[in-house]
Amino acid sequence: MRSQVKTKPTRSELRRQREREQRFQSILDAAENLFAKKGYHHTNMDEVADLAEVSVGTVYFYFKNKEDLISKMLEKIGFQLRNLLGREFENADGSIEGFKRAGILFFEEFCLNHPQKVAILFRESAGQSNRLEEHRKQIFEKLIQDVQHALIRVGDNLNVAYQSPFSSEVMAVSIMGMYERIAYQYLIWQNRPDDLQTIGRDAVDFIVGGIMNLSSKT
């Protein structure tokens, strides 16, 4: 049986693919804008279509329903955040200063440059359906694992041992919880983006102090 030879896409096929991707992204961008400003429950698909400048039928072609829309959006936001932190963790090569820089990046690059994504990730996607809550859980568990692995590398690099087998896990959960609460408190509840840089650096210094407090030289 002869194997099928894959043919190179034509220019028109590539153009149609780009157009599909652009429509998909324009719908996501419009929904992100509306969900962050009006709220998930107060936004309907007609409004998303209108802002994205497409038909409602086009929105439903790409997304089964509003839950599917925010689920896909959450997936992209989670990937973006993991990529941002992961890149810095990798560049840090296990140093405590590198770990500190990753925390600063969360507040100064992610939160300040993407407040709508913060609203989606920490507010609008919370407390919805069981399916969406499970999706959020998976995203946060991956983020926590990323932070935990970075903490283990810091410990190995500094030649320190944490106080218990659970120390790195507890610290990772606590760090993500602090990041979430601080972002929520000062961006969403109090709307104080001008103060977030200083607040974020204070939080990171506090976290680094906790890391050092739970470690000892081997």
Question: How would you describe the overall organization of this protein?
Answer:
This protein is mostly helical and 218 residues long. The protein folds into two domains: 1-63, Orthogonal Bundle (Arc Repressor Mutant, subunit A), CATH 1.10.10; 72-217, Tetracycline Repressor, domain 2 (Orthogonal Bundle). Helix content is 78%, strand content 3%. The protein is built from nine helices and two strands; from the N terminus they run αααααααβααβ. The chain has a two-stranded antiparallel sheet with strand order 1-2. Helix 4 packs antiparallel against helix 5 (96-113), helix 4 (66-92) packs parallel to helix 7 (130-158) and helix 8 (167-189) runs antiparallel to helix 9. The longest helix has 29 residues, at 130-158. The model has no long low-confidence stretch (mean pLDDT 93).
Sequence-ordered SSE layout with sheet pairings:
Blueprint (H helix, E strand, L loop, with lengths): L10 H28 L6 H8 L3 H7 L3 H27 L3 H18 L1 H10 L5 H29 L1 E3 L4 H23 L3 H21 L1 E3 L1
Helix pairs in contact: 1-2, 1-6, 4-5, 4-7, 5-9, 6-8, 7-8, 8-9
